[in-house]
Amino acid sequence: MKKKSFVLVLLFLLVIISCQDNDLPKKNIVVGISADIETLNPLFSFTQIEGNINELLFLSLVRYEWNSSTGSLDSYNMLADNVDWGEDSSSVTISIRDNIIWSDSTKLTVNDIIFSFELYADPEIQSRAVGTLNNFYFNDEGRIDVDRTFAKISDSEFVINFKPGAKPSTFDFDLPVLPKHVLDKLSSEELKHSTFNENPVTSGPFTLQNWQREQRIILKKNKDSFLVTDKTVDELIFKIVPDYNSSVLQLKSGELDLIEEVKSEDAEGLDNQRGISIGLIKGRSYDYIGWNLKNPKNLQEDHELFANLKIRKALTQALNIEEVLETYLYNYGDLSSGPISSIFVESFDSSRKPIERDIESVKSSLSGLGWQDSDNDGILEKDGNKFKFDLAVPTGNPLRKYAATIFANNLKSVGISANVEFLEMNTFVSGLFGYEYDAWMVGWSTPIPLDLKIQWYSDLDKSPFNFGNYSNIKVDSLIEVIDEGLSHEDKNIAYKKLNQLIYEDYPFTFLYWIDSIVAYNSRIKGIEINPLGVIHNCWKWGVE
User: What is the pTM of this model?
Assistant: First the structure.
């Protein structure tokens, strides 16, 4: 009888254990994204969502936290166990964690790290990082000179030597590390089409469980990762929901746990929805109207309108920018006073305010420049030329469509004809890089850490996004001084001066910083929303 009772108890316990293992729901979070990604290979991860997902799959030597009190990044070791800078910072000795295993059970070593940097810098591969590792030694073929740049001490320790005159930092070696034993036999062309890009061998806090094209990407917790805890969710699911309205409905119904890029007009309603919270990513993106300072038909000539600072200022003063911020964005944003956002606390001059709308000043300024409506047709003219121009705007953005209509009417009220041309995005971008527009309206995301050179330096080879052909000797000089290396305090002073110079030149009409609105299910715990993004460090998330 006792034996029978023991067997029954044992069977009961087995049933309980089985239920615990198999029948209880998994802890997961479903994130809605509007489109599928192209690759899971960090070499070719050019979009933000690709980069965010890859940071969950692959470890880098260091990683960053956003410091909201200073508006800057604080680095911390990830794959690296210790980072020891040489006395003059011309070299750095790095030891790595000795317990990192690739998802195919192979140990991660220094060989993987050196190999990864070779791939990122390979001109034939054209990775997302090509051209950015300028502090390393390179050979005549444009590849990293491995012998001069790296010195391997052991499988877990190595040295990086930087070329003379370099001002290196952790940003020189923060790229995701790739598995050499998987990729070293592939040519550059084979790499671009490898199955690794869809089913990679990884080292991060999550591994790929399943990727169904145009449906979902499922990541599962890597229980062997030093980053995860018992609270870390079992699965992180990225569900592709192309239709915005559907994503909102699915958030409300609980099918989705998190969505980004919520429309301003929907934010209040969602915030009042039980079980849903709202968060804001502030100060990363602004919209602007760009003025081409050169003649699009002949870039050797100044633009007949926009080369004149007084005209650019008058155009800016004519616009009712605040109306768009209030009526369309519902004040989910801030008026812009230059290319540096208030999130960069120590580099931002809070005393500077955007220029106010002043119609009388606009009329007086233009009249003083000789612009008059002599034939009473409502359009100013000078020397037989009407004050009119085309404003190029990419399609697909309701905010810019709305704003373009408002601004065109604002300009018309002071005698300026702005013909708004809506262009398909690929066509628009092609024309932008070809300097083909008189004026255009689009957005810009400020790089973190701050980098104004790529947009404001006069040498177009070093400033690929200087679409307006802007040139200012004082601006160039400040950018060069910042590049050469300054103390933390002096750099912040230089950035404040740089912002002032650019804003008062009006090469752009800076419009508004746009809050990126995030809505998420309140069951998610530990979520931090900051300028680095939403899913940054999401292995720290838990659910209730």
Answer: 0.85
